[in-house]
Amino acid sequence: NPLRTSKPQRDRERESQKESFTANETMAVSSFQCPTIFSSSSISGFQCRSDPDLVGSPVGGSSRRRVNAAAGISSSFTGDGGLSSRILRFPPNFVRQLSIKARRNCSNIGVAQIVAAKWSNNPSSGLPSAAAAAAASSASAVSSAASAAAASSAAAAPVAAVPPVVLESVDEEVLVAGEGIREKIGSVQLTDSKHSFLSSDGSLTVHAGERLGRGIVTDAITTPVVNTSAYFFKKTAELLDFKEKRSISFEYGRYGNPTTVVLEEKISALEGAESTLVMASGMCASTVMLLALVPAGGHIVTTTDCYRKTRIFMENFLPKMGITVTVIDPADIAGLEAAVNEFKVSLFFTESPTNPFLRCVDIELVSNICHKRGTLVCIDGTFATPLNQKALALGADLVVHSATKYIGGHNDVLGGCICGPLKLVSEIRNLHHVLGGTLNPNAAYLIIRGMKTMHLRVQQQNSTAFRMAEILEAHPKVSHVYYPGLPSHPEHELAKRQMTGFGGVVSFEIDGDIERTIKFVDSLKIPYIAPSFGGCESIVDQPAIMSYWDLTQEERLKYGIKDNLVRFSFGVEDFEDVKADVLQALEAI
Asked: What InterPro entries does this protein map onto (predicted)?
């Protein structure tokens, strides 16, 4: 009974409880793990404390910046393989520091698991491979080992001196620049740029940007959405460090976001690009790219068949800055050579395949021609997807995508991206920061989620489109089919060389006038009549009505747009269902 206990005795009991609490709190190990940097290759494992040290003060500097292992309670333990190490003690506010900057809305932080993954994937990091393997495999064993260590620590022999472990303030060590995110812990940088364990595009769409190097430290499988318009600095000194480039961080939502950075890293991995910039739409990516790379009074070359809004921007807006445009047929190599020899051409910009006739440009050939004259090459690969075509590997300097289409793939989000070397993308990014057009982090999350099934979707869409193109070409009520997978396509052999699949869009002309074509479209039951493509749901439209209805019939014909033209984007529905629907609609006319 505490009322009958003498005051000295109660004081001794309280002191004993305090010491017991301190020791237990220091030795506890849970799902929270932290890295230990070892001084000797003979030490093949590590041990972590679980919670922030709220009792003692770290030795040797600011409590925000340093942690000294020797200041903690010494212990050693023998686990599998005779592992031994010291316990890390964390500075006060450590959990709070992990929760700010690029870690908002995250929980259950497992730093050691990430570091172990990086070490195991980076032999040059200085940690023995055995230690990396042990670190990854002993995470569950550390808890039980730590309990035994707590009981035997008093009798254990002293371990060899381990150099102090410096763990800087976490909010200062997160390297979050516009060009990507790197998680820096001690001297280890986490990056998944090599993806040594991912051997296919399908695996990259699922794991790239997330499995190793995600800048948001969390145990969640999915990437968290960081909803914030700005990022704060705790002291003016931190702001000055950032402004004078001694530290790197997020600053304002228009300049970058942790969720958006994950998407950029994922697309970069898929395209084989050094850097990627995502924007609010595909048109935003195209127009900002043109404004950033083509000087006033400059000259560009493009192709006849292209997305109409891109043509409008080139014809109506670029001339206001004195920029002139040469338009050539996608296969007119002689025209391209003449243009780059006659003018100081800043950029050759084209789609491949094009919209809506799916013409293909010889990317390798045009890149060689342009580069001899110092001309950049940018390919809009939206119809191809990064899975079916690698424009950068073929020699292009930049590749643009409307992520709204196949990359997002669910008809529920707008987005665009531009991929290429860091130097060029940085030029575009600088203008993007001025103009805006920022991708919302919620939209970035939807595109990340959509990309995880991209390879499955595109495989189905490639297959359905190819089979339907063959059926349509053989049907008596179809006068012409445009699809690069068909031998009748003018660039079929080229498409076979530079593409691994021909895409999910087929354009074709009904044997009849506009009224008969309307009847065919209206008789379809599966596809939606809508102006997009590349999603899970099939979509159909008549370009003459959907995209060119403000022009006269004669004006439309200048672009090759006939009243009987149909553009059909095949989704992921069962092939037999789609086939039956198209055939019954043809029978209806």
From this structure: CGS1/2, Cys/Met-Metab_PyrdxlP-dep_enz, Cys_met_metab_PP, PyrdxlP-dep_Trfase, PyrdxlP-dep_Trfase_major, PyrdxlP-dep_Trfase_small
The string of pLDDT tens digits covering residues 302-353 is 999 999 999 999 999 999 999 999 999 999 999 999 999 999 999 999 999 9
Provide the pLDDT confidence category of residue 202 given band limits of 50, 70 and 90.
confident
What secondary structure letter does DSSP report for 549?
T
Beta-carbon contacts of 181 under 8 Å, excluding residues fewer than 6 positions away, are 102, 174, 175, 213, 214, 215, 258, 261, 262, 265
Is the per-residue pLDDT at 551 higher than 90? yes
- Statement to judge: residues 413 and 503 lie in one domain: no
* pLDDT tens column, 516-534: 999 999 999 999 999 999 9
DSSP letter at 32?
A: -
Res 52: pLDDT: 35
Same domain, 486 and 431: no
The total number of structural domains that make up the chain: 2
Size (the chain), residues? 589
**What is the rounded distance in angstroms from the CA atom of residue 85 to the CA atom of residue 77?**
7
* pLDDT, tens digit, 9 for 90 and up, residues 260-290: 999 999 999 999 999 999 999 999 999 999 9
CA-wise closest residue to 400 among 422, 376, 417: 417
Pairing of strands 478-482, 505-510: antiparallel
Average of per-residue pLDDT values in the chain: 77
To which residue do tokens 């940690």 refer?
A: 127
Q: How far is CA 324 from the centre of its chain?
A: 34
Of the candidates 453, 469, 497, which is a domain's last residue?
Answer: 453
Query: What's the angle, vertex CA 145, arms to CA 143 and CA 149, rounded to 5?
Result: 115
Per-residue pLDDT at 213: 67
Looking up residue 431, the CATH number of its domain turns out to be 3.40.640.10
Q: What is the DSSP letter of 317?
A: I
For residue 234, the Cα-to-chain-centroid distance in whole angstroms is: 29
Specify whether 532 is located in the same domain as 557: yes
Q: Tell me, what CATH number does 489's domain have?
A: 3.90.1150.10
On the question of pLDDT at 365 being above 90, the answer is yes
Give 447's pLDDT tier (boundaries 50, 70, 90): very high
Integer Cα distance of 414 and 437 in angstroms: 11
Of residues 187 and 91, the one with the higher pLDDT is 91
Q: What is the mean pLDDT of residues 244-255?
A: 93
Among 276, 328, 279, 337, residue whose Cα is nearest residue 306: 328
82: left (phi over 0), alpha (psi -120 to 50) or beta: left
Same domain for 471 and 391 = no
Question: Quick one: 443 and 475 in the same domain?
Answer: no
State how far the Cα of 379 lies from the Cα of 359, in Å rounded to an integer: 13
**Does the CA dihedral 247-251-256-258 come out positive or negative?**
positive
Q: Which residues contact 511 (CB under 8 A, 6 or more apart)?
A: 476, 477, 478, 479, 564
Distance of CA 84 to CAs 107, 157, 271, 502, 534, Å?
29, 11, 44, 57, 55
In the predicted structure, residue 161 carries a pLDDT above the cut 80 = no
Kindly report the backbone phi and psi dihedral angles of residue 74, in degrees, each rounded to the nearest multiple of 5, phi listed first: -70, 140
Q: Is the pTM of this model over 0.70?
A: no
Which string of DSSP letters, residue by residue, matches 245-314?
TSS----BGGG--HHHHHHHHHHHHHHT-SEEEEES-HHHHHHHHHHHHS-TT-EEEEESSS-HHHHHII
